[in-house]
UniProtKB/TrEMBL annotation:
It comes from Spirochaeta africana (strain ATCC 700263 / DSM 8902 / Z-7692). Belongs to the D-isomer specific 2-hydroxyacid dehydrogenase family. This is D-3-phosphoglycerate dehydrogenase. The lineage of its organism: Bacteria, Pseudomonadati, Spirochaetota, Spirochaetia, Spirochaetales. Its EC number is 1.1.1.399, 1.1.1.95. Keywords: NAD, Oxidoreductase.
């Protein structure tokens, strides 16, 4: 029977599927036929000639050397949709946290913890500076209507938002799952121009790298808020910071912080937690394990990238 090498902590339910089918699952395997991994940045030299398939337990796969794998006939899988709900929930939270200035308000509240009986008076005096808009009635623009984009769209509609989305490759499955209330833009500029909140859900590749740049920011409303739960490289951070400093962008919420983004009230920088829920981790591990099993034992390729 085949051996599977694991990197990172893969949810037990996925590993149990493989073990239950007779695979040897070993993080130190030297001659594995399959690899299952999360965020480990896999180097070509770590892929032995015995490897036939690599399953990335997640949607993005830019931590796998796909070109090297293609050259060597190794099939790479990902698990689109398996963690979409986890990411969606954090996107919705990001919109609300940013609009309602929850972080600056909490930091200020913590800062007055030693003020004793003055606390209620201080709150009364200062609270108006932490006021922020409701999201109901505002326009959410979405670039990319795949599994995550559609879940975000449907939840935003349920919260009373107007949603306009753009996706040149809208799949039949996504179109079926999407609320009829989502307006379909015919070009991305319509989304950029109308969005009070803009969220991007596209893979990072040569075409999309840096897609949110100074040119796009100039098309957006001055108080718009951008959310990036897709990949850090999609957004030109320097351009975002310049727009925030110039007052031509309202806020930036990102799951991909770098040092330049930290310590500001107008940036919410989350350490890549979009899919960090037990549910998403299990769903991804189970899907990845089944993909490897189908491929290694029956030759079936499901969701290769
Ligand atoms: C994904 O690509 O699935 C998410 O960004 C979460 C992750 O990287 O594990």
């Amino acid at each position: 029977m085949h051996t599977i090498k694991t990197y990172n902590k893969i949810a037990a339910s996925g590993l149990e599927i493989l073990a239950g089918k007779g695979y040897t699952v070993d993080e130190n395997a030297a001659d594995a036929q399959g690899i299952i991994l999360r965020s480990h940045k896999l180097q070509p030299e770590e892929i032995t000639t015995s490897v036939l398939g690599i399953a990335r337990a997640g949607a993005g796969y830019n931590n796998v050397p796909v070109d090297h794998c293609s050259e060597h006939g190794i099939v790479v899988f990902n698990t689109p949709g398996a963690n979409a709900n986890g990411v969606k929930e954090l996107v919705i939270a990001g919109m609300l946290l940013s609009s309602r200035q929850v972080y600056p308000a909490l930091a200020w509240a913590q800062s007055i913890k030693d003020q004793g009986e003055d606390v209620p008076k201080m709150i009364e005096k200062e609270k108006s500076r932490f006021a922020g808009p409701e999201i109901a009635g505002k326009t959410l623009g979405i670039i990319g209507l795949g599994a995550i984009g559609v879940l975000v769209a449907n939840s935003a509609i349920a919260l009373g938002m107007r949603v306009i989305g753009y996706d040149p490759f809208l799949s039949v499955e996504s179109a079926w799952g999407m609320s009829a209330a989502v307006e379909k833009a015919t070009n991305p500029d319509q989304v950029y121009q109308q969005a009070d909140y803009l969220t991007i859900h596209v893979p990072q590749n040569d075409k999309t790298k840096g897609m949110i740049n100074a040119e796009v920011l100039a098309k957006m409303k001055d108080d718009a808020r951008i959310l990036n739960f897709a990949r850090g490289g999609l957004v030109d951070n320097a351009a975002v910071l310049a727009a925030l400093d110039a007052g031509t962008l309202g806020a930036y919420v990102t799951d991909f912080p770098d040092a330049s983004l930290l310590g500001r009230d107008d940036v919410i920088a989350i350490p890549h937690l979009g899919a960090s829920t037990p549910e998403s981790e299990e769903n991804c591990a189970i899907m990845a394990a089944n993909q490897l099993d189908e491929f290694l034992t029956r030759g079936n390729i499901i969701n290769s990238v």
